[in-house]
Amino acid sequence: MRRLLPIFPLALLSGCLIALAALRYGARPAVLSGSAGGRAGEPVLAASRPPASPALPLPAAEPGSRQLRRTPVVAVAERVSPAVVNVSAESIVREADPFFGGLLGSRARKSQSLGSGFVIDANGIVVTNAHVVAGASRIVVTTLDGRELQASVLGSDRDADLAVLKVAGSRLPAVPLGSSADLMIGETVVAIGNPFGLSHSVTMGVLSARGRTVPSEAGERVFTDFLQTDASINPGNSGGPLVNLAGQVIGINTAIVSGANGIGFAIPADRARRVVEDLLRFGALRGVWTGLRLVTIDPELARRNDLAATRGALVYRVYPDSPAARAGLAEGDVISAVQGQPVAAREDVTTAVYSLPEGTPLALRVQRGRRALDVHLAPVSPPRDLGLRILAERAGISVAGRQGGLEISRVASSSQAARTGLEPGDAILQANGRDVAKPDELGEEVLRGYDRGGLLLVVQRGRFAYNLEFQLD
Description:
By secondary structure, the protein is α+β, with helices and mostly antiparallel strands. Helix content is 20%, strand content 37%. The protein has ten helices and 24 strands.
């Protein structure tokens, strides 16, 4: 009977024979000379003779072959990244002592926030979000090449959430604001910034939507006309640029949806331009005056007022001798479109007003009963004392300057202020969350409140301060 050899001994025997043949007739392995291949202090032997069959050389790289791998996104990152900066804002926060409360006063601690920005002028003008630098006592921007530059705030507007900084530098790489007027849904966009402190991170996505309306996290404010993108935007990206494939800044990254991945929002470049220009020229966003008091239409409001429209902005009041009155707008009109874009809320109209240079007519589509009208409204700079006049007319408060601040000089009888219990001599500390120390500052905030329909004042009497809200309709 023929015996079968086990597979493993047979394979082992065959392997030994092949190895002997290789040692007898094949090439000996070469070892490169030098210190990298051996132990420390030991010589490394060179090959005793060249290989019998030299290995085939790698194909030579064609000139410029690396350049062929430079996608449009790579080109955009190379062009824009040098102008992007990291923004570090340091503020002093005072808090009660955790053991003794307010008995021994408060203690101070440093708080730091990180964000992004970009240089729009080579002489050191940087744009970022207002919330990145709000309350900061010290601001430092860091460039791509590692320079740390001190920055000061030239102007900031919290409603637009934009701020302009000046850094101590010149001949800096810069990228100007582009245009957002002709953006296409689905086009590729690139976000560059400082997410989670990871400097100059680049993410790519598409433009998901335009004209988004987004409430703030606390719900006290509504932002309109945002660009939506799925390019990854995270904490720290705020203030950085959103760029198209032509390397143009089409937006300023600002917000994300809490708890949602892949949904980020940016301020359109066209809207940001007007704000930035005002901040550079005046240090603040200059108010404009239309004389309109608007309210957003919802199904309940439409039912109660017997409106044919279920969406849009209802003209609640027209101030006498205002641009709205001269344009022929009347109470009860419904604004359904502005500049050819549908109006879903009163903020859409306000955003359009603040997106164009002062005096530029706005094209409004108005529904008056069953008729549709085309109206052109030209906002103007408000008269100097208009805000204080509205405050006196609608809330019954007259003010006067005093050493270091403002005080109420008169309270009209039977007014909102009288019903609230205000008295002459009470001090006004804040309006709409902003410290006010001059009548003009209070007047500006009254006009902002008029657009939104209400005014929040912080009033002090003696050692106590009170938050009081007044309707301006």
